[in-house]
Amino acid sequence: MKESLKSQYLWALFFLGMFLLNYPMLAIFDIQSRWLGIPVLYFCVFSVWIGLILLTFIIIKRTKKDV
């Protein structure tokens, strides 16, 4: 993967994270129910957070493999 393409993927991932962890999206999951004993809002936030970390890892790993 080229350096400029990696940079574009990381920027896109950053904006996706900003969109998913901002008020309008979080308001959807601000309900009083629980899933697996965890409030739905907390579960959503931590799931998105872990997903963003994993996607960042995959992008960086693919870049290091080509070098």
TrEMBL record:
The keyword Transmembrane applies. The chain crosses the membrane at residues 9-29, 35-60. It comes from the Bacteria. Keywords: Membrane, Transmembrane, Transmembrane helix. This is DUF3311 domain-containing protein.
